[in-house]
Design goal:
Blueprint lengths: L1 H48 L7 E5 L8 E5 L2 E5 L7 H10 L4 E6 L5 H4 L2 H7 L1 E6 L8 H12 L13 E3 L2 E7 L13 E6 L2 E5 L5 H9 L8 E3 L11 H7 L3 E4 L12 H9 L3 E4 H4 L2 E5 L4 E3 L38 E4 L4 E3 L4 H5 L5 E4 L3 H6 L3 E2 L6
Parallel strand pairs: 3-4, 4-5, 9-10, 10-11, 11-12, 16-18
Antiparallel strand pairs: 1-2, 1-13, 2-3, 6-7, 7-8, 8-9, 13-14, 15-16, 15-17
Helix pairs in contact: 2-4, 4-5
Bound molecules: zinc ion (ZN) (2 copies).
The site of one zinc ion (ZN) has 7 residues, from helix 3.
Protein backbone atom coordinates (compact mmCIF):
# COMPACT_ATOMS: atom_id res chain seq x y z
CA UNK A 1 0.00 0.00 0.00
CA UNK A 2 2.74 2.34 1.06
CA UNK A 3 4.65 1.36 -2.04
CA UNK A 4 1.66 2.13 -4.27
CA UNK A 5 1.16 5.54 -2.65
CA UNK A 6 4.83 6.33 -3.11
CA UNK A 7 4.68 5.31 -6.74
CA UNK A 8 1.59 7.46 -7.26
CA UNK A 9 3.25 10.40 -5.57
CA UNK A 10 6.36 9.92 -7.72
CA UNK A 11 4.23 9.73 -10.83
CA UNK A 12 2.45 12.90 -9.81
CA UNK A 13 5.72 14.70 -9.23
CA UNK A 14 7.02 13.59 -12.65
CA UNK A 15 3.74 14.77 -14.16
CA UNK A 16 3.97 18.20 -12.52
CA UNK A 17 7.59 18.45 -13.52
CA UNK A 18 6.75 17.58 -17.10
CA UNK A 19 3.89 20.05 -17.21
CA UNK A 20 6.13 22.78 -15.82
CA UNK A 21 8.75 22.03 -18.44
CA UNK A 22 6.10 21.97 -21.14
CA UNK A 23 4.77 25.34 -19.95
CA UNK A 24 8.26 26.83 -20.04
CA UNK A 25 8.76 25.52 -23.58
CA UNK A 26 5.43 26.99 -24.70
CA UNK A 27 6.33 30.36 -23.17
CA UNK A 28 9.78 30.29 -24.76
CA UNK A 29 8.26 29.39 -28.14
CA UNK A 30 5.65 32.12 -27.81
CA UNK A 31 8.27 34.72 -27.00
CA UNK A 32 10.41 33.57 -29.90
CA UNK A 33 7.38 33.71 -32.20
CA UNK A 34 6.49 37.21 -31.05
CA UNK A 35 10.08 38.35 -31.57
CA UNK A 36 10.17 36.80 -35.07
CA UNK A 37 6.84 38.42 -36.03
CA UNK A 38 8.08 41.74 -34.66
CA UNK A 39 11.31 41.57 -36.64
CA UNK A 40 9.46 40.57 -39.84
CA UNK A 41 6.98 43.43 -39.46
CA UNK A 42 9.83 45.85 -38.78
CA UNK A 43 11.44 44.71 -42.03
CA UNK A 44 8.16 45.02 -43.89
CA UNK A 45 7.68 48.59 -42.67
CA UNK A 46 11.26 49.47 -43.54
CA UNK A 47 10.98 47.83 -46.94
CA UNK A 48 7.82 49.73 -47.86
CA UNK A 49 9.69 52.96 -47.18
CA UNK A 50 12.64 51.91 -49.27
CA UNK A 51 13.10 53.64 -52.62
CA UNK A 52 13.56 50.26 -54.35
CA UNK A 53 9.85 49.78 -53.94
CA UNK A 54 9.29 52.39 -56.69
CA UNK A 55 10.39 51.52 -60.19
CA UNK A 56 13.09 53.95 -61.30
CA UNK A 57 12.12 57.02 -63.31
CA UNK A 58 14.47 58.37 -65.99
CA UNK A 59 14.00 61.70 -67.73
CA UNK A 60 16.03 62.41 -70.87
CA UNK A 61 16.20 65.99 -72.11
CA UNK A 62 17.30 65.04 -75.61
CA UNK A 63 19.71 67.35 -77.42
CA UNK A 64 17.79 68.32 -80.56
CA UNK A 65 19.66 71.55 -81.22
CA UNK A 66 17.32 74.54 -81.20
CA UNK A 67 14.10 72.87 -80.00
CA UNK A 68 12.63 70.61 -77.33
CA UNK A 69 12.26 66.87 -76.86
CA UNK A 70 11.90 64.99 -73.58
CA UNK A 71 11.71 61.23 -73.07
CA UNK A 72 10.37 59.89 -69.77
CA UNK A 73 10.64 56.21 -68.82
CA UNK A 74 9.23 54.53 -65.70
CA UNK A 75 8.47 50.88 -64.97
CA UNK A 76 8.94 49.83 -68.60
CA UNK A 77 6.53 52.50 -69.88
CA UNK A 78 7.62 55.47 -72.00
CA UNK A 79 6.33 58.92 -72.79
CA UNK A 80 7.67 61.49 -75.24
CA UNK A 81 7.06 65.23 -74.98
CA UNK A 82 7.81 66.93 -78.35
CA UNK A 83 10.39 65.73 -80.89
CA UNK A 84 12.40 68.75 -82.02
CA UNK A 85 12.34 70.36 -85.45
CA UNK A 86 11.38 68.76 -88.77
CA UNK A 87 14.91 67.47 -89.38
CA UNK A 88 15.20 65.91 -85.88
CA UNK A 89 12.56 63.16 -86.12
CA UNK A 90 15.08 60.52 -87.13
CA UNK A 91 17.64 61.45 -84.48
CA UNK A 92 14.93 61.32 -81.80
CA UNK A 93 13.91 57.92 -83.22
CA UNK A 94 17.53 56.71 -82.93
CA UNK A 95 17.71 58.00 -79.36
CA UNK A 96 14.55 56.06 -78.47
CA UNK A 97 15.97 52.94 -80.14
CA UNK A 98 19.13 53.20 -78.03
CA UNK A 99 16.96 53.26 -74.89
CA UNK A 100 15.24 50.07 -76.07
CA UNK A 101 11.88 51.78 -76.54
CA UNK A 102 9.54 49.89 -78.87
CA UNK A 103 6.28 51.62 -78.04
CA UNK A 104 5.16 54.86 -76.45
CA UNK A 105 2.33 54.90 -73.92
CA UNK A 106 1.98 58.66 -74.29
CA UNK A 107 3.12 61.25 -76.81
CA UNK A 108 2.56 64.92 -76.00
CA UNK A 109 2.74 67.75 -78.50
CA UNK A 110 2.99 70.82 -76.25
CA UNK A 111 2.15 73.24 -79.09
CA UNK A 112 2.36 73.28 -82.90
CA UNK A 113 5.61 75.28 -83.33
CA UNK A 114 8.01 73.42 -85.63
CA UNK A 115 10.87 73.28 -83.09
CA UNK A 116 8.66 71.08 -80.87
CA UNK A 117 6.27 69.28 -83.17
CA UNK A 118 8.40 69.08 -86.33
CA UNK A 119 9.90 65.65 -85.64
CA UNK A 120 6.72 64.10 -84.22
CA UNK A 121 5.39 62.83 -87.58
CA UNK A 122 8.40 60.47 -87.84
CA UNK A 123 7.85 59.21 -84.28
CA UNK A 124 4.11 58.70 -84.73
CA UNK A 125 4.77 56.92 -88.04
CA UNK A 126 7.47 54.62 -86.62
CA UNK A 127 6.08 53.85 -83.17
CA UNK A 128 2.97 52.36 -81.71
CA UNK A 129 1.73 55.39 -79.74
CA UNK A 130 -1.08 54.58 -77.38
CA UNK A 131 -2.28 58.12 -76.61
CA UNK A 132 -1.24 61.28 -78.47
CA UNK A 133 -2.08 64.39 -76.47
CA UNK A 134 -2.56 67.64 -78.39
CA UNK A 135 -4.44 70.79 -77.52
CA UNK A 136 -7.58 71.57 -79.52
CA UNK A 137 -6.15 74.91 -80.66
CA UNK A 138 -5.57 74.39 -84.39
CA UNK A 139 -2.58 75.70 -86.31
CA UNK A 140 -2.06 76.59 -89.94
CA UNK A 141 1.52 75.35 -89.99
CA UNK A 142 2.66 72.66 -92.40
CA UNK A 143 4.34 70.68 -89.59
CA UNK A 144 1.05 70.53 -87.70
CA UNK A 145 -0.77 69.25 -90.78
CA UNK A 146 1.92 66.59 -91.28
CA UNK A 147 1.37 65.27 -87.75
CA UNK A 148 -2.41 65.17 -88.21
CA UNK A 149 -1.98 63.40 -91.58
CA UNK A 150 0.31 60.79 -90.01
CA UNK A 151 -2.21 60.16 -87.22
CA UNK A 152 -4.98 59.93 -89.83
CA UNK A 153 -3.02 57.34 -91.80
CA UNK A 154 -2.83 55.21 -88.64
CA UNK A 155 -6.57 55.63 -87.98
CA UNK A 156 -5.69 57.50 -84.81
CA UNK A 157 -7.03 60.70 -83.33
CA UNK A 158 -5.24 63.05 -80.97
CA UNK A 159 -6.57 63.21 -77.40
CA UNK A 160 -7.31 66.62 -75.93
CA UNK A 161 -6.23 66.35 -72.28
CA UNK A 162 -8.51 67.51 -69.48
CA UNK A 163 -6.89 69.64 -66.81
CA UNK A 164 -5.81 67.94 -63.58
CA UNK A 165 -6.75 64.39 -64.67
CA UNK A 166 -4.09 61.97 -63.36
CA UNK A 167 -2.31 59.56 -65.69
CA UNK A 168 0.09 56.77 -64.71
CA UNK A 169 3.49 56.05 -66.17
CA UNK A 170 4.92 53.11 -64.22
CA UNK A 171 5.08 54.32 -60.61
CA UNK A 172 5.03 57.98 -61.70
CA UNK A 173 1.88 60.05 -62.19
CA UNK A 174 1.36 63.16 -64.26
CA UNK A 175 -1.38 65.63 -65.05
CA UNK A 176 -1.89 68.65 -67.27
CA UNK A 177 -2.06 71.82 -65.18
CA UNK A 178 -2.22 74.28 -68.09
CA UNK A 179 -2.99 76.13 -70.22
CA UNK A 180 -5.88 77.52 -68.20
CA UNK A 181 -6.97 79.91 -70.98
CA UNK A 182 -7.00 80.05 -74.76
CA UNK A 183 -4.48 82.52 -76.17
CA UNK A 184 -3.70 84.03 -79.52
CA UNK A 185 -0.04 83.13 -79.26
CA UNK A 186 0.88 79.54 -79.95
CA UNK A 187 3.53 79.54 -77.18
CA UNK A 188 1.04 80.53 -74.50
CA UNK A 189 -1.22 77.65 -75.52
CA UNK A 190 1.53 75.15 -74.59
CA UNK A 191 0.35 72.11 -72.63
CA UNK A 192 1.89 72.24 -69.14
CA UNK A 193 2.70 68.93 -67.43
CA UNK A 194 3.40 68.22 -63.78
CA UNK A 195 5.04 64.84 -63.15
CA UNK A 196 5.49 63.24 -59.72
CA UNK A 197 7.59 60.26 -58.67
CA UNK A 198 7.71 59.57 -54.94
CA UNK A 199 9.00 62.77 -53.38
CA UNK A 200 10.38 64.13 -56.66
CA UNK A 201 8.44 66.43 -58.97
CA UNK A 202 8.99 67.89 -62.44
CA UNK A 203 7.31 70.72 -64.34
CA UNK A 204 7.39 70.81 -68.16
CA UNK A 205 6.34 74.18 -69.50
CA UNK A 206 6.68 73.98 -73.30
CA UNK A 207 7.11 77.51 -74.62
CA UNK A 208 4.54 79.25 -72.38
CA UNK A 209 5.19 82.94 -71.87
CA UNK A 210 4.56 85.31 -68.99
CA UNK A 211 0.87 85.86 -69.78
CA UNK A 212 0.11 82.13 -69.41
CA UNK A 213 2.45 81.88 -66.40
CA UNK A 214 0.49 84.59 -64.61
CA UNK A 215 -2.82 82.86 -65.34
CA UNK A 216 -1.36 79.58 -64.07
CA UNK A 217 -0.25 81.32 -60.86
CA UNK A 218 -3.70 82.81 -60.35
CA UNK A 219 -5.29 79.34 -60.20
CA UNK A 220 -3.54 78.87 -56.85
CA UNK A 221 -2.58 75.25 -57.56
CA UNK A 222 0.81 74.12 -56.32
CA UNK A 223 3.44 74.53 -59.02
CA UNK A 224 6.31 73.57 -56.70
CA UNK A 225 8.73 71.29 -58.53
CA UNK A 226 12.25 70.00 -57.95
CA UNK A 227 13.05 70.15 -61.66
CA UNK A 228 11.77 72.83 -64.04
CA UNK A 229 12.10 72.51 -67.81
CA UNK A 230 12.61 76.19 -68.54
CA UNK A 231 9.99 77.56 -70.94
CA UNK A 232 10.77 78.77 -74.46
CA UNK A 233 14.48 77.81 -74.42
CA UNK A 234 15.32 80.44 -71.79
CA UNK A 235 13.69 83.37 -73.60
CA UNK A 236 13.12 86.52 -71.53
CA UNK A 237 9.47 86.46 -72.61
CA UNK A 238 9.03 83.52 -70.20
CA UNK A 239 10.11 82.49 -66.68
CA UNK A 240 9.01 85.61 -64.80
CA UNK A 241 10.46 85.97 -61.31
CA UNK A 242 7.06 85.47 -59.62
CA UNK A 243 6.52 82.24 -61.51
CA UNK A 244 10.04 81.00 -60.85
CA UNK A 245 9.76 81.77 -57.14
CA UNK A 246 6.48 79.85 -56.97
CA UNK A 247 7.95 76.76 -58.63
CA UNK A 248 11.19 77.25 -56.64
CA UNK A 249 13.06 74.51 -58.51
CA UNK A 250 16.32 73.09 -57.23
CA UNK A 251 17.27 72.26 -60.82
CA UNK A 252 16.48 73.94 -64.14
CA UNK A 253 16.97 72.43 -67.59
CA UNK A 254 17.30 74.63 -70.66
CA UNK A 255 16.90 73.02 -74.08
CA UNK A 256 18.40 75.24 -76.77
CA UNK A 257 20.74 75.04 -79.74
CA UNK A 258 24.46 75.67 -79.46
CA UNK A 259 25.01 79.12 -80.99
CA UNK A 260 21.30 79.57 -81.73
CA UNK A 261 20.30 82.69 -83.62
CA UNK A 262 17.96 83.99 -80.88
CA UNK A 263 20.57 84.39 -78.16
CA UNK A 264 18.80 81.75 -75.96
CA UNK A 265 19.11 81.55 -73.02
CA UNK A 266 18.57 85.25 -72.31
CA UNK A 267 20.35 87.11 -69.52
CA UNK A 268 17.17 87.93 -67.52
CA UNK A 269 16.37 84.25 -67.10
CA UNK A 270 19.94 83.25 -66.22
CA UNK A 271 20.12 86.07 -63.64
CA UNK A 272 16.85 84.93 -62.01
CA UNK A 273 18.11 81.34 -61.84
CA UNK A 274 21.41 82.47 -60.32
CA UNK A 275 19.62 84.56 -57.70
CA UNK A 276 17.55 81.52 -56.69
CA UNK A 277 20.70 79.35 -56.40
CA UNK A 278 19.19 77.05 -58.97
CA UNK A 279 21.47 74.44 -60.55
CA UNK A 280 21.30 74.75 -64.33
CA UNK A 281 21.67 72.07 -67.00
CA UNK A 282 21.62 73.01 -70.70
CA UNK A 283 21.60 70.95 -73.87
CA UNK A 284 23.56 73.53 -75.90
CA UNK A 285 26.62 73.01 -73.68
CA UNK A 286 26.11 69.51 -72.29
CA UNK A 287 24.26 67.56 -74.98
CA UNK A 288 21.45 65.28 -73.81
CA UNK A 289 20.77 65.63 -70.07
CA UNK A 290 19.62 62.54 -68.16
CA UNK A 291 18.27 62.48 -64.60
CA UNK A 292 17.27 59.40 -62.61
CA UNK A 293 14.83 59.40 -59.70
CA UNK A 294 14.36 56.63 -57.12
CA UNK A 295 11.51 58.57 -55.58
CA UNK A 296 13.79 60.27 -53.05
CA UNK A 297 17.03 61.32 -54.71
CA UNK A 298 17.85 62.69 -58.14
CA UNK A 299 20.99 61.65 -59.98
CA UNK A 300 22.20 63.57 -63.03
CA UNK A 301 24.46 62.29 -65.81
CA UNK A 302 26.53 65.50 -65.76
CA UNK A 303 27.50 68.21 -63.30
CA UNK A 304 25.47 71.42 -63.53
CA UNK A 305 26.74 74.05 -65.98
CA UNK A 306 28.65 76.89 -64.40
CA UNK A 307 29.29 79.08 -67.46
CA UNK A 308 26.14 81.26 -67.08
CA UNK A 309 26.65 82.07 -70.79
CA UNK A 310 23.68 83.88 -72.27
CA UNK A 311 22.49 86.17 -75.03
CA UNK A 312 25.01 84.94 -77.55
CA UNK A 313 23.50 85.37 -81.00
CA UNK A 314 24.92 83.48 -83.93
CA UNK A 315 23.25 84.23 -87.22
CA UNK A 316 23.38 81.69 -89.95
CA UNK A 317 22.98 83.53 -93.28
CA UNK A 318 22.27 80.24 -95.08
CA UNK A 319 19.35 79.20 -92.90
CA UNK A 320 16.10 79.68 -94.80
CA UNK A 321 13.20 81.43 -93.06
CA UNK A 322 11.53 78.81 -90.89
CA UNK A 323 7.87 78.20 -91.58
CA UNK A 324 6.99 78.74 -87.90
CA UNK A 325 9.69 81.20 -86.99
CA UNK A 326 10.15 82.17 -83.36
CA UNK A 327 9.25 85.81 -82.73
CA UNK A 328 12.68 86.93 -81.66
CA UNK A 329 13.44 88.81 -84.87
CA UNK A 330 10.63 91.35 -84.63
CA UNK A 331 8.36 92.07 -87.56
CA UNK A 332 7.97 95.82 -88.09
CA UNK A 333 4.96 97.08 -90.03
CA UNK A 334 5.08 99.99 -92.50
CA UNK A 335 3.88 103.30 -91.01
CA UNK A 336 0.86 103.49 -93.36
CA UNK A 337 -0.31 99.96 -92.50
CA UNK A 338 -3.69 99.94 -90.77
CA UNK A 339 -4.01 96.25 -89.95
CA UNK A 340 -2.13 92.96 -90.36
CA UNK A 341 -3.98 90.11 -92.05
CA UNK A 342 -3.54 86.40 -91.53
CA UNK A 343 -4.48 85.05 -94.95
CA UNK A 344 -4.82 81.53 -93.58
CA UNK A 345 -6.95 82.07 -90.46
CA UNK A 346 -8.66 85.15 -91.99
CA UNK A 347 -8.12 87.17 -88.84
CA UNK A 348 -6.97 90.78 -88.75
CA UNK A 349 -4.79 92.30 -86.04
CA UNK A 350 -3.49 95.66 -84.88
CA UNK A 351 0.11 96.00 -86.12
CA UNK A 352 1.39 95.84 -82.51
CA UNK A 353 -0.48 92.63 -81.61
CA UNK A 354 1.72 89.86 -80.18
CA UNK A 355 0.12 87.40 -82.61
CA UNK A 356 1.59 89.36 -85.54
CA UNK A 357 5.08 88.45 -84.36
CA UNK A 358 4.09 84.79 -83.99
CA UNK A 359 2.40 84.55 -87.38
CA UNK A 360 3.76 82.39 -90.16
CA UNK A 361 5.41 84.97 -92.46
CA UNK A 362 3.91 83.18 -95.47
CA UNK A 363 0.40 84.01 -94.22
CA UNK A 364 1.12 87.53 -93.02
CA UNK A 365 0.04 90.53 -95.11
CA UNK A 366 -0.04 94.23 -94.37
CA UNK A 367 -3.05 96.26 -95.47
CA UNK A 368 -4.10 99.93 -95.63
CA UNK A 369 -7.83 99.04 -95.76
CA UNK A 370 -10.15 100.19 -92.98
CA UNK A 371 -11.99 97.97 -90.49
CA UNK A 372 -15.33 97.85 -92.36
CA UNK A 373 -13.68 96.88 -95.63
CA UNK A 374 -11.93 93.98 -93.88
CA UNK A 375 -15.14 92.83 -92.16
CA UNK A 376 -16.89 92.96 -95.56
CA UNK A 377 -14.08 90.91 -97.06
CA UNK A 378 -14.75 88.16 -94.49
CA UNK A 379 -11.93 88.89 -92.04
CA UNK A 380 -12.64 88.58 -88.29
CA UNK A 381 -11.01 90.78 -85.63
CA UNK A 382 -8.41 89.17 -83.35
CA UNK A 383 -9.83 88.43 -79.88
CA UNK A 384 -6.65 89.56 -78.15
CA UNK A 385 -5.91 92.99 -79.71
CA UNK A 386 -9.58 93.71 -80.59
CA UNK A 387 -8.89 95.89 -83.69
ZN1 LIG B 1 7.00 77.90 -79.58
ZN1 LIG C 1 10.20 76.46 -78.93
Amino acid sequence: MEKELKAAAEEKSIDTHLRQRMNKTVIAFSIAAIVVVFIISLFAIRRSNKPEELSELTVHFIDVGQGDSTLIICGGEAMLIDAGNNDKGTSVQLYLQKQGIDKLKYVVSTHPDADHLGGLDVIIYKYDCNTVFMSDVKSDSISYQEVLDTLNNKWQKPTVPSLYEAYNLGDATFSFVGPVNIYDSSNNNSLIIKLEHGQNSFLFTGDQEKEAEDDLLSTGISLKADVLKIAHHGSHSSTGTGFLRNVSPQYAVISCGDGNEYGFPHREVMDSLKRLNCKVFRTDEQGSIVVKSNGIELNWNVEPSTTWNCGIVTRNPDSPADEDKHPDIPFIANPETTYILNKSSLKFHNPNCEAVQEMNPLNREETTEDRDALLNAGYVPCKACKP
